[in-house]
Design brief:
5 strands; alpha+beta; 124 residues; Thiol Ester Dehydrase, Chain A; 5-stranded antiparallel sheet
């Protein structure tokens, strides 16, 4: 890891919800919890990537989030990830999601481990 990956760093990204992100078990076209979690992970990855060395990447190791409000498919959601801790090759984030109506739809914590891609894949 490069220097600079420190607590307090934040990254926000806005996504438009699509039919592929809908909760399949419901009759209404609403944004699913797994899709929200996936976007939270993606935003955390984007925050971390600039601080990784050439052969490094991060992998998710823990998610603890609440999905608190519905969002209709077609609305946009903005996810913010903030680094809370970097220790022993692991990064802990606070994640939060708002829809385009300003409603907080999710919040929680996520952890990622920084790994050497070659060693992880069974190479070197």
């Amino acid at each position: 890891m490069k220097d600079g990956l420190v607590p307090g760093l934040k990254h926000s990204q806005t996504y438009v919800t699509t039919l592929e992100m809908r909760a399949q078990q419901l009759a209404a076209d609403v944004f699913s919890t797994p899709s929200m979690i996936g976007l939270m992970e993606h935003t955390s990855v984007k925050l971390t990537e600039p601080y990784l060395d050439e052969n490094e990447q991060s992998v998710g190791i823990h998610v603890d989030v609440r999905h608190m409000a519905a969002t209709r498919i077609g609305q946009s959601v903005t996810i913010t990830a903030e680094i809370l801790e970097v220790k022993d090759g692991k990064v802990r984030y606070a994640v939060i999601a708002f829809n385009d109506q300003g409603v907080k739809i999710g919040e929680g914590y996520h952890r990622r481990a920084v790994i050497n891609q070659k060693k992880f894949a069974g190479g070197a």
